[in-house]
Each structure stands twice: as structure tokens, then as C-alpha cells.
Amino acid sequence: MAEAILTTDLPFPVFRRGKVRDVYEVGGDKLLIVATDRISAFDCVMPEGIPGKGAILTQVANFWFGATKDLVPNHLIATKAADYPAELTPFRDELSGRSVLVMKTEPLPVECVVRGYLAGSGWKEYQASGTVCGISLPKGLKLADRLPEPIFTPATKAESGHDENIPFARFAEIVGAARAEELRSLALALYARGSELAAARGILLADTKFEFGIREGRVILIDEALTPDSSRYWLAESWKPGANPPSLDKQFLRDYLETLEDWDKTPPAPHLPESIVAGIRARYADLAQRFGVVI
Length: 295
Hints:
With 295 residues, this protein is of the alpha+beta class. The protein is built from 7 helices and 17 strands.
């Protein structure tokens, strides 16, 4: 297995280095997003990367940007290194497959989360109070149950530390009432499209999150879309309420980390065994293959 690419060092102004992606400014109104092989969980970046993960994330996101562009415009300008500006030509091999050139937007400081099934932190809250992010749900639901209808549960987007779930009223205060309604409708429509296309490939989209920006007054889908880093995907054939089904996302990593009694989910993150690295890569590659994504 090839070595994981954990960082990039290009001779362009660094716009931002996130947990997974390195973002560079290319010209006044364009950004180059490069997906590394870094992986994070519980807001901590793991010491080991997942070989090829950056390319998988990029190509899966590109699939979804293409499959949803009729619902909302997205930030993509070019997805092939051969189509990048001339100043990027010397770095074509390094960038190929794991990068995109995008338009710069004004990012909204919120995450638009949609949940269709009862899982993760939502399940923990439901057990305690019968709600998910303050939204009341019917009694008697089980772990991994399908919700009566998908719910929109926004969160603040933290630069460091944990994102915080917020009620819709607070969401509307941050982005404005009309914009909040627009974003909720868009997120639910995107989730519905994702669920439909995933189901046709034997997968359940349990939940996901979207990020949006504003450019020239209109909402643009940015960052990533429906990737295994930002979504919870389950194998439909193994789904049964009452237990977490096998997943094709980061849950495999989270489950492993939960077994470590000597790690308190704060940096530095623990080293990952080769078997866990290989298991994560296999799940991400399986998901990409099901969507016909060639890596």
C-alpha cells in the first residue's frame, strides 16, 4: 500500500489548512482545494493517514456535485488538473485526482445537518429526552430506526473544538430568517437526492451535513458533499433497527477509538494499527466503487 500524503506544500498563499484539506489562493477569486490523506475523529487528526483517501473523497464529492447541480449551484470550476491555470501546471501530477479548483465564496458559519435515521449523538439524546437536537420524536424508536421523516438539525461550525447543535431559531438569527428557510429546503432536497441514489446502490444514507457559501447574493454548495467523511452510510442488506449496521464511512474508526480506555479524545490522537488503516480504506473504496467512481 502506498504511503499516505499528510500535507502539501505548494508555492501559493495558504487560505486555510483544515483537518483534511489544504486550501490555497489561486488568483483573486479562486481557491485550490487539495484533499490530503489525513483522517480525523472526535475533532482530532490521526497520526496515520489513509492511503488514497484524498482522491476517494475528492472524486466522490465530484460525483455528488454533478448529481445535485440541478438543485443548487456548487463551487466547482475545474475538476481535472489538466484544466487548471498555467501556474499550476508544474504540480499537475501532485494535484491530479485529489484536488479541485473552485470559486471563492463567503462561507456561512453553520453546518446544515440532515438526519434520516436515529444514530450517533442523536440516539444518545433520544434515549435521554426523546428528542434529537431539541426536535421531539415518537416514543419507542430503536437505534438505527428510520425517522418518520428526515429532520434538519443545524450546527455551528467551529474552527477548533466541537461543533454545537443549535435550534432552528438560533440558526435563523445567524443567517437571517429567509436564508434559513432556503438552506433548510436545500439541505432536505439534497438529502432526498442522496438517499435516492444511494438506495439504488444498496446503501442507506443515515445522515449527512452540507456547507454553503454566498456568491453574488446566491447560495452555493461548497466544501464537500455526501462523502464518507461527512455522511453516515449503511449497507442496506444488513440494516435492522436495534443495532448499528455495517458502515462505509468513518464509523469504523470511531468504533475502534471508543475501545481505547487510555485515550480521552483530546490531542494527541493515538497511533492506528495497520489493520484499522486498511479497514478504513477498504470501506471508503467500497463506497466509491458503488457510485462508479474510478480512483
